[in-house]
Design brief:
Elements (H helix, E strand, L loop, with lengths): L15 H28 L4 H9 L18 H14 L1 H20 L2 H13 L4 E4 L15 E5 L2 E12 L6 E7 L8 E7 L5 E3 L13 E12 L3 E2 L5 H37 L1 E2 L2 E2 L4 H29 L5 H25 L11 H11 L6 H13 L5
Parallel strand pairs: 1-4
Antiparallel strand pairs: 2-3, 3-7, 4-5, 5-8, 6-7, 9-10
Helix pairs in contact: 1-3, 3-4, 3-6, 3-7, 4-6, 6-7, 6-8, 6-9, 7-8, 8-9, 8-10
């Protein structure tokens, strides 16, 4: 009988160090993450110990400078690590992406003194971060946010509510975007808020269809007082900082989506290899083989797209359009591939006994977070045809 089933991803890595890193990641996944992923997701348990281990292993700091405790890895390597983590458990892969996003404002726009004071603990000291941009009435229209920071001497007093915050209530620090001036994007400033700040509280986590192990919650800022030394960048620069972070963050979401899609493809391949109907493996039937071919093609195309965008970033070239394209294509592909995996498993795909249904539920959120795919199409179109006429 012909051998069917998943094969390891053949990764094109730039250095021997990167290959060793991926080997370390795969060993850690098989030992610490994959064996408990289904059980912990079903129970809704947040894997804080796993994030502590990732921090100790240098995996929460990969794309940042070695000077401040970072791994000094190019984005094309970091994203492939994310993909492996997300394939094992999206709560972990997406959590690493969010933490990396939360560190971006300080790493790229903080002063040398700010970076020296905070970055080592954020990158390798066991801390976990979150990113606070969205609000209950300000999602896709992020520039309309209303959380306000008012200056009082050398401090800022923050009031407002943030929504849909991954790691809300469990993070050690929050990168916050708040209004310090007038309406619109030029009135927004970025801050670094400690997780234990007085007046900061989290609502009960949202009840979600997937990623139950990853808390998503509203955050309430009630006269939260922080020193001006925790302001990141200039006053009014916050929206530009946020957009810069989101370009990179969208590549993280793209990589996570391909990780989930790869896991679903692997599950489908393993199933069709073992399932027999009419006296032979169902993998022999052309209709199913065509489905598998389409799934694999979408995974490979998505991987190539996010890596091409990452290489532009690594070369210091503009990559905003390509990041939006990668986020759009990879997350749509993730939804299609996971849905097809459920179909290939038939009735078993719809049960909790197999992970295919979890992959499908998880893939859906990736079409929404860090800019819905409708917003990605707007971003791409603006690069192609210019801004919309008013």
């Amino acid at each position: 009988m012909t051998e069917y089933g998943p094969r390891p991803v053949d990764r094109k890595l730039p250095t021997e160090e990167a290959r060793d890193l991926l080997t370390l990641v795969r060993e850690l996944i098989e030992r610490e993450i994959r064996p408990v992923a289904a059980e912990e997701e079903d129970a809704g348990r947040f894997p804080r110990d796993t994030f502590t281990l990732l921090s100790e292993s240098g995996l929460l700091s990969l794309p940042y400078a070695e000077e401040f405790g970072g791994g000094d890895q190019p984005y094309e390597v970091y994203l492939q690590v994310l993909e492996e983590l997300a394939a094992a458990r999206l709560t972990v892969g997406l959590g690493v992406s969010v933490h990396t996003l939360a560190c971006h404002a300080l790493a790229e726009f903080g002063t040398k003194e700010q970076r020296a004071e905070h970055l080592p603990a954020m990158l390798g000291g066991g801390l976990l971060g979150a990113y606070c941009l969205s609000e209950p009435a300000s999602g896709s229209d992020a520039a309309s946010l209303t959380t306000r920071a008012t200056r009082e001497g050398d401090h800022w007093v923050i009031n407002g509510t943030k929504a849909w915050i991954t790691h809300g209530g469990v993070a050690d620090f929050y990168t916050l975007l708040a209004r310090t001036g007038g309406d619109g994007p030029r009135g927004i400033t970025a801050f670094l808020v400690p997780g234990d700040a007085e007046g900061l509280s989290a609502a009960a986590p949202e009840r979600k269809m997937g990623m139950k192990g990853s808390p998503t919650a509203q955050l309430h800022f009630d006269d939260v007082r922080i020193p001006d030394a925790r302001r990141l960048g200039d006053e009014g620069q916050g929206f530009a900082i946020a957009l810069s972070a989101l370009d990179s963050g969208r590549l993280g979401i793209a990589a996570c989506a391909i990780g989930v899609a790869q896991a679903a493809l692997d599950e489908a391949l393993a199933y069709v290899a073992s399932r027999q109907q009419f006296g032979r493996p169902i993998a022999d039937f052309q209709g199913l083989r065509f489905m598998l071919a389409d799934m694999a093609t979408q995974v490979e195309a998505g991987r190539a797209l996010y890596l091409a965008a990452a290489r532009l970033r690594d070369a210091g070239q503009p990559f905003s359009k390509e990041a939006a394209m990668a986020k759009l294509f990879c997350t749509d592909a993730g939804m299609r591939v996971t849905t097809d995996a459920v179909q290939l498993l038939g009735g078993y795909g719809y049960t909790l006994d197999f992970p295919a249904e979890r992959y499908m539920r998880e893939a859906k959120v990736l079409q929404i977070v860090e800019g819905t795919n409708q917003i990605q199409r707007m971003v791409i179109a603006r690069h192609l045809a210019g801004p919309e006429s008013r």
